[in-house]
Automatic annotation (TrEMBL):
One of its GO terms (biological process) is glycolipid biosynthetic process. Pfam families: Lip_A_acyltrans. One of its GO terms (cellular component) is plasma membrane. It is found in: Cell inner membrane. This is Lipid A biosynthesis lauroyl acyltransferase. Keywords: Acyltransferase, Cell inner membrane, Cell membrane, Membrane, Transferase. PANTHER family: LIPID A BIOSYNTHESIS LAUROYL ACYLTRANSFERASE, PHOSPHATIDYLINOSITOL MANNOSIDE ACYLTRANSFERASE. The keyword Metal-binding does not apply. The keyword Cell membrane applies. One of its GO terms (molecular function) is acyltransferase activity. CDD domains: LPLAT_LABLAT-like.
Amino acid sequence: MSSPSIPLASHLLHAVAWLVGRLPRSLQIRLGAWSGRRAFARNTREAKVARRNLELVMPQLSSDEREALVREVMQQTGRNAIESLRIWTRPRRDNLALVAAVHGEAVLAAAEAGGRGVIIAAPHHGNIEMVVEFMAARGPFTLVYKPPENRAGDGFLRLARGRHNVGLVPAEASAMRPLLRALQAGQAVGITPDQQPKEGGGQFAPFFGRPALTMTLIPKLAQRTGAAVVFACALRRDDGRFEMWFEAAGPAVADADLAVATQALNAGVEAIARRDTRQYQWTYKRWSKRPADSGLPNPYHPDCY
């Protein structure tokens, strides 16, 4: 099936991204941090969501400590946005030159050598786009992504991410088939395990001590194919370079009992998020969906909308 055409507006957005991506690296770092501080000062919706999430998961922090952390989170969020524009519009060799260290590469190599494919579980921590670049440099990489609601945004993402060795699969019910094909061919697929699925596409499991609707796609793929599951992230250093981390997921992630599997999946994501809490995507409404008949309110309503 042919890919949908890319609107002119998508090409214009990509041209703007190209221009930002060509700014000096030091200026990009300052621009990203400045945009984050600006969002914090304006108390944008993202800042409000980050504050609410940190209230939920770190109630022990004082108000001053939490505000300082929210400010840091927003700065990292701004840096992440500018970095992504650079990564999407620069040659891969330039992007990989920013990798200062790789931790757990032997874990990744062993998973690849297993011959049953590799499921890269990459939470929204650090910069996911660096994980995509690193994996695509090793071979074909199929990435599940959530398409924006408008055609221009979706077209832009397909232009930005659809680079050599990267195949894009929308996060829809039909995603299972191309992912199975890739894994059965011994290739790697990338999935963000902390993306809240649609109703009926997940199961509630604890995440930072609170029930969060959690995708079952990764456990089901692992069960059906025997593919190894590897957690991955690219942590940002203060100097603008990255450290890649790869860690093998425990066997519980592929448990036939989805309650066990999703709990193990969330535990792995939580451990990664705690490595540097500033770099996790606290701007995402992770707990907006509540278990039926739980009596738990939507923690983001009405202040974060």
